[in-house]
Design brief:
By secondary structure, the chain is an alpha/beta fold. The protein contains four helices and four strands, in the order E-H-E-H-E-H-E-H. The protein is globular, with a radius of gyration of 15 Å.
Length: 158
Amino acid sequence: MRVDSSRLASGGSSAGGHLALVAAMIAPDSPLPAPKPGVAAVVALNPVVDLLAYSPEQIRILEQDAGIAAGRAIEYSPIEFVQPGNPPMLIQHGTHDEVAPIGQVRRFRDVMVQAGNDCMLLEYERAEHAFHYPSPAGHFDDVIDATAEFLLDRLAAD
């Protein structure tokens, strides 16, 4: 059975959001931009999009913890792989995220749009990392509604 990639989306939260972006943007066998997206859309919640935006010490720790060879974080940094034809993306992010600062996500969105891609960023004021989990003060319902609307719009049958 073949999977129809025109109806397939990837997504995740935090490191999972980063991996969804990497899988959609980077060729599976080399650190090069994917010649064709493997999915029709990506939904990422509070992802890290620019690994090189961190200090050299943070990058070294990240590489060590993630099992990335020293000096090769750039090969896993989504912003480095933006090109025309990247799949549509919805990124939902808190403005007070200290793990993945909103500034790097705004830059990623801007680079995506400048390349002619569909990249929507929904910002949640004063929300921190992992803001979307169910809780009395959370944004769970808003995140689910925005995700459903985005996917239904981007993946609707012709």
